[in-house]
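Re: the 287-residue chain
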Amino acid sequence: MSITITGTNAISLSVSGGIGPMGFISGTSTIALFLSPPVLSVQARTGNVILTRSDLTAAAASHTHETTDVSGFSAAVQTFSKVASVQGKVGTVTLTVADLTAAAASHTHSTTNISGFSAAVQTFSKVLTVQGKDGAVTLSVDDITAASASHTHSTTNISGFSAGVQTFSKVASVQGKSGTVTLTVADLTAASASHSHSTTDVSGLVSAIQTYGGKVASVQGKVGTVTLSIADLTAAAASHTHTTTDIVNLTMHTHSTTQISNFTAAVVSIAGGNAGGGIPITYLFGG
């Protein structure tokens, strides 16, 4: 037996001679599958067709609409909306405090605006009065047994002060003194702030001076506090005279009055008018 598909509309069945359940079978039979197929193509496609949204005139599975795309939208909203208007406003409504009988978001109240305020304060306040005062209470030192914020104490007001000082003070006494200590030179093995030394108190003074101190070690063979006299020097006294022989290159010569210009007038002036001639005048010149 063989089966042959003829076209798209029928199946041809051929049976050769043979023994079957009903006896001997032989012949050929054609069975019609479809008289007219209901769909020949989809969107001009055949075979295993897979469609996408771009193959169709259709919206995406997830999409939105404008209210104008919805027929009867306004009437439906007015019919079925639970609120038709807000404070007489429709559409996109923005309300302010002026639209409402309401206080601003940030506001205050006086105590008189709070019903039962005084009774509630008296009931729930942890403190009803302070030093016998209520309301806006301002306390002073006189209201309490207390010292001023700024105050001092004497040492006698501090219990254990002396023992504490002696225990924790880094210095208990100075030169055997305690309390307000004032030291003098006599309390110390020390010299006064202003004092002097003899040369014998300075060890190595002489050798140090000789080594480092003076540019002159001795004067005319003397050291120490040196006082020089003329006898120590090859020198004349501060006040002294010289003879003419002590003056080197001294030459003596004379002039007559005629060799001196204006001599007569000068002599008359000096001598009171007693002019004379031939008076020798001696000059000493060096050279």
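The radius of gyration is 74 Å.
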